[in-house]
Design goal:
mainly alpha, 3-stranded mixed sheet, 17 helices, 3 strands
Length: 433
């Protein structure tokens, strides 16, 4: 499917419009070190919303453990081709990768790498597709609480979609089962002081917001939470934190904050912003500022912009498409024209670069094939490739989307149907107007 050609009516006009928008009369967005906004505050911190953090340990940690990670990832890919995805091993790989990129905890990395080698030699007696009787979570091969919590959301969603209830109480939510606990955890994660703690909280902040926003804001999931949890009060606490504490009032974006030379510096994080707004029905405040910032960071590297280092990545494209959808009612006419041009290019790129000749998705940018399928299908669904009702950005017709739907469906049916990401991808692919 690498050469699968899908014609959007007037595609060349849209692309030409996009190129014009890039070359005529636009601001210079290439100077990434200059802040978008600086504003004085009555306290001694100076907020710089356009900060892009530089980890003091990430390069060293990747240099130390990179060879082992590449070797083990190749072993996982080989095992996947032989007998299907070794999900437990993949979860351990993900946790090791997170420790390498967001901490300087060498001992924790070595421990997880040893666990990974053992899991590849002898798969542990843990079924990652089954709910744990111990705490009601899924993702049993993760050690970190936030990774287990986040890994539990998709299986719970698929359970609810099938009209079933979890077998065991969701007691894994005990660390955040009150407004006070939830508020304290979120505030602790918002600000990172890397030289002092050796930990970058960005990943944990992002996945905590992602998981809890779905559990608290999606009614069908909130109904599954323990009766002892004050769900409405907790949802209010999370929304209040997002809207009145964590959102940057000047840019409309969310992101991790960093202590740098005695100052707090904010980031404009595409991924955290995606998760902060995706699961709520109403728009958050400052959507006009969010739309302006979304275009201002176009040329910057993900997650602080759209750029994905020259590789295809439907995950990043999905984030951008969702934010463009939510910002669409708040855009100027010029921004809407540019959005249409951008999405046209992104769709063409996804079709011609991310899909292999046999209709499978390229797994190179991802930790697993299930991620590749989920984000590939999710991006195409978000832009309305298969469903005109979701085509918010253009009234134009797409030529023969059904042939691609059939090919992708055939490939998805070859995957492990117990995997919640595969199940969600199938559900999106099969949805029709």
């Amino acid at each position: 499917m690498k050469r699968h050609i899908v014609l959007l009516t007037a595609i060349s006009i849209a692309i030409a419009a996009g190129i014009t928008m890039y070359t005529v009369g636009r601001p210079d967005w290439t100077t990434v070190d200059e802040p978008l906004v600086q504003r004085p505050t009555p306290v001694h911190y100076r907020y710089i919303p356009n900060y892009i953090p530089v980890s003091p340990f990430k390069r060293e940690m990747n240099g130390r453990f990179g060879p082992d990670m590449r070797e083990l990832r190749r072993a996982i890919i080989a095992r996947t081709h032989e007998s299907g995805e070794p999900v437990c091993a993949m979860q351990i790989l993900t946790e090791a990768h997170t420790l390498i990129n967001y901490t300087n905890d060498n001992d924790a990395v070595r421990s997880r790498l040893a666990d990974l080698r053992a899991a590849l030699d002898t798969p542990p007696p843990i079924d990652p597709f089954q709910q744990s009787a111990e705490d009601g979570s899924w993702g049993g091969c993760f050690k970190a609480w936030y990774l287990r919590m986040h890994a539990s959301v998709d299986p719970l969603k698929e359970l609810v979609q099938a009209g079933r209830k979890p077998q065991y109480p969701l007691s894994f939510l005990a660390p955040v089962d009150s407004p006070e606990k939830l508020r304290a955890r979120l505030h602790d994660l918002l600000v990172s002081d890397l030289p002092r703690t050796g930990v970058d909280n960005r990943k944990e902040l992002n996945l905590t917001i992602t998981g809890l926003a779905q559990l608290l804001f999606i009614p069908e999931l909130a109904a599954q939470l323990p009766a002892s949890m004050p769900v409405a009060a907790m949802a209010h606490t999370l929304q209040d934190f997002l809207d009145n504490t964590a959102q940057d009032h000047e840019t409309g974006f969310w992101g991790a904050w960093y202590v740098v030379d005695g100052e707090i510096r904010k980031t404009n994080d595409l991924s955290i912003t995606f998760h902060a707004i995706s699961y709520r029905d109403s728009d958050p405040p400052r959507m006009k500022e969010l739309a302006d910032t979304l275009f201002a960071i176009r040329t910057r590297r993900y997650p602080y912009g759209w750029r994905d280092q020259g590789t295809q990545n439907n995950h990043h494209a999905y984030d951008v498409a969702r934010l463009l959808r939510r910002a669409w009612p708040h855009m100027t006419a010029e921004q809407r024209i540019r959005s249409a041009a951008e999405l046209t290019i992104m769709v063409a790129r996804s079709l011609n670069v991310s899909i292999n000749a046999d209709g499978s998705f390229d797994v190179t940018p991802y930790d697993s094939a299930s991620e590749a399928y989920y984000f590939g299908v999710s991006f195409l669904d978000e832009v309305g490739f298969f469903r005109p009702s979701r085509r918010f950005w253009t009234p134009l017709e797409i030529s023969d989307p059904e042939s691609l739907r059939a090919v992708l469906h055939k490939q998805l049916m070859k995957q492990d149907q117990r995997n919640a990401m595969i199940a969600a991808a199938l559900r999106k692919l099969e949805a029709r107007d």
